[in-house]
UniProtKB/TrEMBL annotation:
Keywords carried by this UniProt record: Hydrolase
Protein origin, superkingdom: Bacteria
Pfam families given in the database record: Abhydrolase_6 (PF12697)
Native source species: Xylanimonas allomyrinae
Name listed for the protein in its UniProt record: Alpha/beta hydrolase
UniProt cross-references to PANTHER family, sorted A to Z: PUMMELIG, ISOFORM A (PTHR42886:SF29), RE40534P-RELATED (PTHR42886)
Entry's Gene Ontology molecular function annotations: hydrolase activity
Domain AB hydrolase-1: 7-255
């Protein structure tokens, strides 16, 4: 397809590559090569521990699978979105440090990841996961208290705002595939995201970034800040969809994905 990129899909927390089945079929039908990966601690990699370096290796392997010169579009949801943005920022840093490094990235579609994980909200969120792992009654009370503080810290408007998608980011949506990762992956993932700014990653990235959010996703609080940071960006809000925008509104998401891939192919 000339300059059209191959596509690598990266799933969210406590799901698997299976969440992208409709999107993989859609882009294949449109003539694109594509693969959906399992992050460490998920799917076929369920026996591994999650870390950003390990996640980058998974993406590196997927990129390499398309050959040495093929341009790549990354599509990530939630944890996968944060991971792909960090990967793109790392790629830009490699370009700056080593002029001989030629990027293969054509662009990034980042969905459900427009709340910057840096700072207090993620630290509180990680506490929720840790006490969930503990499972004791006292820990459960602490989890409820911490959840309230997390909602307030994230929204700045009190404990009611943002509460609907706390479970979504933690992996509270329906199980996907035969294996549902445990809560340990949440603490591992948030440990690696804590102190890591998605806004800074968008700002560092030197390829187009399309931000896609469901209108009902309370974690889109900083979508305009993310858009303003982009070297070349677009923001699409899908009406009626929640955090899992690709499965809540697959037809609408696929239309956005087609537009994004066409945009990336012109680069």
């Amino acid at each position: 397809m000339g300059n059209e990129p191959a596509v690598v899909f990266v799933h969210g927390m406590r799901t698997s590559s299976a969440i992208w089945d409709e999107q993989v079929a859609h882009v294949h039908d449109a003539g694109y090569d594509a693969v959906a990966v399992d992050l460490p601690a998920h799917g076929e990699r369920r026996d591994e521990r999650f870390s950003l370096p390990a996640a980058f290796e998974v993406i590196d392997d997927a990129v390499t699978s398309f050959g040495a010169d093929r341009r790549i579009a990354l599509v990530g949801l939630s944890l996968g979105g944060y991971t792909t943005l960090a990967y793109a920022a790392r790629d830009a840093a490699l370009q700056q440090a080593c002029p001989a490094h030629t990027t293969r990235l054509a662009g990034v579609v980042a969905a459900g990841c427009c709340s910057d994980p840096k700072g207090k909200p993620v630290a509180l969120f990680r506490d929720v996961a840790r006490v969930t792992v503990a499972g004791a009654t006292a820990a459960s009370r602490q989890a409820r208290s911490t959840t309230t503080r997390w909602r307030a810290a994230l929204s700045g408007k009190g404990s009611k705002a943002g509460g609907a998608d706390v479970a979504a980011l933690l992996g509270g949506t329906a199980a996907v595939g035969p294996y549902r990762p445990g809560w340990q992956v949440v603490t591992d993932a948030l440990t690696h995201l804590a102190g890591h700014s998605s806004v800074a990653d968008v700002r560092a990235t030197r390829v187009p970034v399309w931000l896609v959010n469901g209108s009902r996703d309370h974690l889109r609080l900083q979508e305009h800040r993310h858009l303003a940071a982009a070297y070349q960006g677009a923001l699409v809000v899908v009406p009626g969809a929640g955090h899992d925008v690709n499965t809540d509104a697959p037809d609408a998401f696929n239309r956005v994905l087609t537009r994004a891939l066409h945009d990336f192919g012109r680069g």
